[in-house]
Every structure is written in C-alpha cells, then in structure tokens.
Amino acid sequence: MSMALPTYMTLDQNLETRKATLKIPDRKERKHREMWGTTRAYLQNHVLGVSEGHNAILRLVGVGFRASVESTATTVKPEYPGQQYVSLKVGYSHPIELGLPRGVKASTPQPTRILLEGTDKEVVNQFAAEIRMWRKPEPYKGKGIFVNGETIRLKAKKIK
Question: Which of 27, 36, 44, 158 has the fewest CB atoms in 10 Å of its CB?
C-alpha cells in the first residue's frame, strides 16, 4: 500500500524506536493543521490494515433475506480473474450479485451475516455501504441491512 503525502509535509522515521513523525512547516496555517490530522489518521489506518486488517460485519434482518459468496455470477462480468461475488436475496424478484473489490475477502458464517475483511479500511467500508444501499434499515418494521452493529429506533405505528 502506498499513500501520497502533501508537498508541504515531511515524514521522519526513527528506526530504533520504530516510530514515524509527521511534520508541517507552519502550525499557524489552518489548512496545514487540518491536513496534518487527516494525513495522520490515514497513515494510522494503513498501518493497522497491514498489521491487523479491517473488517465489516453486515447483518441481514428480514424474512427470507440471505446472502452467499459465490465464485461465478450470471448477471455480472468479472473485473479481474478469480473475482468472487456476493449474492444477496433481499426481497427482489432476482438475486443481486456484487463483485468483490480487489483486496477484500468475504465470508458468510451464517446465511444472514456477511463478514468483509481487507487491508484498506476505505475500500472495505465503501463496499459495505454499497451492499447496504440495496436495503437500508427502515424504522417501522426494523428490516434491512445493518453494518457494524448499527441499530435503528423503531417508530410508532401511524394512527388515524
């Protein structure tokens, strides 16, 4: 994994203590301070992704909602050789097949759970959001696709 630093930032590495420090030339300039924190967070996510990995757990809540990971798809062409697909059955007349992005692994420990794992946090969470968009959690019955322990408060029934 690689990341481009803004031109005004420098990254110093101390090999003895195994620490990296990010420096900016002017702490009083607002743009530099903003990008300092953002870049530090991106670097930390990259380091954590390579050492531990990032994951997203999706829960499918609803009657008949289920998911599976398949090696072939009937409606989608592969973007790269060996691509796997997540097949969702979430109340439509046809299954929804989504190709896994590079660097993301998917598994289904239960038919109503999807576990996404990868080194890049942004890619893993973006793919989880794309899956969630097919059935967003709705507040009346509590059905939908929930990401990472997301909860929703149920609304009361409308009374005339």
Answer: 158
Residue 149: phi and psi, rounded to 5, are 70, 20
- What's the predicted TM-score (pTM) here? 0.88
pLDDT tens, residue by residue, 61-74? 999 999 999 999 99
Integer Cα distance of 133 and 95 in angstroms: 15
Q: Report d(CA 63, CA 93) in Å as an integer.
A: 14
Q: Which of left, alpha, beta for 142 (phi over 0: left; psi -120 to 50: alpha)?
A: left
Q: What angle do CA 86, 112, 155 make, to 5 degrees?
A: 115
Q: Under DSSP, is residue 63 helix (H, G, I), strand (E, B) or coil?
A: coil
- Model confidence over 7-28: pLDDT tens digits? 889 999 899 998 888 999 888 8
**What are the tokens at 50?**
């390579």
In angstroms, rounded to a whole number, what is the distance separating the alpha carbons of residues 39 and 112?
36
Where does the chain show beta strands of DSSP type E? 10-14, 19-23, 54-61, 66-70, 85-89, 96-99, 104-107, 113-118, 144-147
